Amino acid sequence: MAELSIIWKDKMENVDKLKMNAPVYYAVDFEIKREVKFPLYGYITLKGAEANYRVKISAIEPYESREGILKKTTRNLKSLLKIETVQDISAIPLSEFKKEDGGYLKRVTKFSYGILEEQKEFEIKKFRDMTDDEKEIYEIIKSEYDIELPFSLIEKIVKVKKEMGLKKRDTKKLISKVVEIYRRRMVDPYEAVGIVAAQSIGEPGTQMTLRTFHYAGVAEMNVTLGLPRLIEIVDARREPSTPMMEIYLREDIKNDEDMVKEVAKKIESTEIIDVADVITSVADMAIIIQPDPKKMKKRGVKKEDIIESLAKLKAQKLVVEDEGDRIKVKLPEPSYKKLYLLGEGIKSLTLRGVRGIKRAIVRKSRDNTEWVIYTQGSNLADVLEIDEVDGKRTRTNNILEIADVLGIEAARNAIIEEALNTLQQQGLNVDIRHIMLVADTMTYNGIVEAIGRHGIAGQKESVLARAAFEITSKHLLTAGVLGEEDQLKGVAENIIVGQPVTLGTGAVTLIYKPKKKR
Amino acid sequence: MEYTRFEKARIIGARALQIAMGAPILTHVPEELIDPLDIAIYEFEKGVIPITVRRAK
Question: What is the pTM of this model?
Answer without folding.
Answer: 0.67
